[in-house]
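Subject: Sanity check before I submit

Could someone independently write out the structure tokens for this chain? I want to compare against mine line by line before I put it in a report. The sequence has 181 residues.
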Amino acid sequence: MSCILIILCLISGVFTQSWEPGKCPSIDVEPVDICRVSGRWFEYKKSFDVYDPEETCAEMFWNNTDTVGSQLIFTSIPKETKNCLKIIADATLNDNSLFTDFHIPVSASVKIYTYILETDYNDYIIIWRCQNRGSMHAITSWVKSRYAKPRIDIDKKVREAFRKRGLKIVSFVKMDQENCP
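---
Independent answer below. Compare away.
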């Protein structure tokens, strides 16, 4: 049942995105040290278009497999079932974009290109994705923290990162990290 819920959430995310006219903006990002970005990341905020109010305790564990490849393990706990859900993805860093191949149970793999907009490796990471569809585009973003309760003002870092690249800040929703294991 929970596998079906995950698949439906991923599919609905594609259709609920806010599409805007024009192609995805071209952005500059700094090179990323894949070894330093590895480890545990708590989901601090995510774009409203991929937010699920039933999701709690969302985390990502970044496990390096070599100098360009990684395995990403995403976990969360639905409020209703309290069973831990897990999705595994293979990720490859290429020209500062992250090509991620999600392995979704009872479904085909889902391949997504994202960018690490900015990170300080110790406190936060800002992940940004833009999808083109015809003459329209949709932007999605995630903000993750090394700590369930961030030690720094990550919201300020997000505003600065988007402003520095001339990007419109997406509507974010704070994730529930209370009472997590």
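---
OP: Matches mine. For the report I'm noting this point. The first strand starts at residue 20 and ends at 21.
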